[in-house]
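Input record (Table S2, row 333):
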Amino acid sequence: MLAAKYIPGEKKLSLKDVAIPEPGPKEVLLKVRAAGICHSDLHILSGEIPYTTSFTMGHEGCGEVVKTGSAVKEKFKDGVLYAVHGPNPCGECSYCKSGHDNLCNSPDRAYIGIGADGAYAEFMVVPARNIVEVPPGISPQVAAVATDAVLTPYHAIKTLGEVTHNTKVLLIGLGGLGMNGLQVALALEADVTVCDLRESSLESAKKLGAKKVFNSKFIEQELKPQSFDVVVDFVGRDSTFLQSQKFVRAGGTIVLVGLGSSQVPIVTASFATYQVKVQGSFWGTHKEMQEVYDLIADKKIKPQVQTAPLKEVNHWLEELEAGKIPGRMALIP
Ligand SMILES: [Zn+2]
Ligand SMILES: [Zn+2]
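Output record (zinc ion complex):
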């Protein structure tokens, strides 16, 4: 089968013909139907997130179960889509048992497609416990990108930001995550303001129903300082994190999702004086993944996804790096 492999030190993926993997006792074999491409892939290829072993990339996958391991008791349905929970939690540790399985601290765990073999292949093997049934009517490409590009903003906005009806929320950065974050915040009936530097993204945000849309260059003049309950920084650079601190209200929360810089500054005077909370956010849980698919099935979130053949993966990673992909992209094996 075809698989796109990360090789340590190489800047492109290697397209290889490899054997179809066999599921272990507690695993299933998926015939991959779609795999989302993501900025994290670029961070791995550039060496910013270093990996010393080779693996098949692709952490946003979905497919059909075609084989189950000897110890798997669940029955999976033929012809039904199952999405992969990329954090690949163990299910046994204290984090997993308390429902915080995105933070699983098992020493044996590797993220699917980021350390362990992932979805840029015709088939993939995953622990049976780490797949989620996708409701009917959701396409493979939407199901695939939802595993990260919808799940991550959902976790950040709903769970950690505690955004609900009428919460005043500012979303900074309208890339793939921010654009889905906007839809999550609208679905929660929050009072949403969004900003980005790209006019094309601002236009897309308006089409998705955003009413308060600003170019980041002008928000210092346009928005009142300390006027948001929650600010979600999908960029994570010095400038956006300083803006987050400027616009969050006293006692409010900044949720940091983006990894744009390896460090960001905190203004100690306003941080302490105004009791601002800074909340880190990482991916999402198995349970949240099911909630995300319910929202998509109800048409409350409509992720924008383009598709391309898997063998063009390197081309589309370059396009992503050049900022030429609006919304998200999924590869079809
Ligand atoms: Zn991702
Ligand atoms: Zn665990």
